[in-house]
Design goal:
The complex is a heterodimer. Chain A is of the alpha+beta class. Chain A has one helix and six strands. In chain A, a hairpin with a 2-residue loop joins strand 2 and strand 3. Classes of the chains: A alpha+beta, B alpha/beta.
Chain lengths: 92, 251
């Protein structure tokens, strides 16, 4: 908000917001003031679907260390899943 | 100064005005009841949105005898829960400076047009609103006093400039045309103490009428009583400095 540091990535998947599940379109990743987390700055991720209005949002606000750990953990899980030949990602 | 034997009343409500480019925008307008004449303050919400704390701030100013008007700077972008709206605006890089200036000018013109106005108006904002307040004091000629609270990005590097924020506000320092009050926490990361030093040095070099008050134990947003960054003694003193400044320049 003061930093205006925000990166965006197109997403495929689902998020669960205040009105239930909705299809995701974008992840907005900012390093800026959080709304709720108790720090001046945080790594904020908003999973959103702009087509469904601003309320279609799943938000997390993480400390920088937590965010790094999350990123590493995501890659660790992906490595294990993608190494398993019996696991195929497909639309059911 | 309010005393206990007095009648007191205020009206606080959402009204619509024509902002930048003639667009209709919502504003939260709080004012004391009575004929006035009252001085006015345009209240600029922070980037986290046109939210509850800004309604509280607007009413607080009305309680102290000001026509207080806070435009929704995101009114054209979206409507919804303030945090959701602010998150969407954040993702788009914030509100364009030119549009914000137009909305602030419109809010000032509105309150000045009222028969209850005393003809004086200040502008006040915190965080991104502090930046906007300083910018308004430089780019608009309508304000009689400017209050900048911990304005982030008043000093911007070339890599921070965007189509929406194309010029670092400190580039306009020589154009500041009203007295400026600045409140800052020394522990803030935006603006840093070094940036506040530079900001002050530029005001001094330009011969501007300003006063800065810096709080060694406060960080960013030390007025925000709903957040851990609230710093009680700094906030109490900051409000006192603000009301003193307003009474001196808007009477």
């Amino acid at each position: 908000m003061c930093t205006m540091i925000c990166e965006r990535a197109a997403m495929e998947g689902s998020g669960k917001g205040r009105e239930g599940w909705f299809p995701l379109k974008t992840a907005n990743v900012s390093y800026d003031h959080p709304f709720n987390a108790p720090w001046e700055y945080a790594l904020n991720i908003d999973f959103v679907n702009e087509d469904r209005g601003v309320g279609a949002r799943v938000a997390v606000e993480l400390s920088p260390e937590s965010a790094k750990l999350l990123a590493e953990t995501i890659f660790a899980a992906l490595r294990r899943g993608e190494a398993d030949p019996q696991i195929q990602v497909s639309v059911l | 100064m309010y005393t206990t034997e007095q009648y007191e009343g205020m009206i606080a409500e959402t009204i619509t005005i024509k902002g930048y480019n003639g667009d209709e925008i919502h504003t939260y307008y709080a004012r004391p009841q009575g004929p006035g004449p009252f001085p006015a303050v345009v209240v600029i919400h922070h980037l986290p949105g046109w939210d509850e704390i800004y309604r509280d701030f607007t009413r607080k100013l009305a309680h102290h005898g000001y026509l207080a008007i806070s435009p929704d700077l995101y009114c054209r972008d979206a409507h919804g829960v303030p945090e959701d709206v602010a998150a969407a605006v954040r993702a788009e890089g914030g509100a364009p400076d030119d549009r914000v200036m137009g909305d602030l000018k419109a809010a000032a013109d509105y309150v000045l047009s009222l028969p209850s106005s005393n003809g004086k108006v200040a502008v006040w904002g915190t965080c991104s609103g502090g930046r906007h307040a300083f910018l308004a004091g430089c780019k608009l000629d309508v304000f009689d006093a400017v209050i900048e609270c911990w304005g982030g990005n008043v000093i911007m590097g070339a890599d921070q400039l965007t189509e929406k924020q194309p010029v670092s506000p400190n580039e306009y320092t020589s154009d500041l045309n009203a007295p400026l009050l600045g409140l800052f926490g020394d522990l803030d990361q935006s603006p840093t103490a070094e940036q506040v030093n530079q900001h002050e040095a530029e005001l001094k070099a330009a011969g501007k009428d300003y006063e800065f008050h810096r709080y060694p134990e406060a960080g960013h947003g030390f007025f925000y009583y709903h957040a851990p960054i609230y710093h009680q003694s700094s906030a109490v003193d900051g409000w006192e400095k603000m009301f003193n400044f307003l009474s001196r320049h808007l009477s």
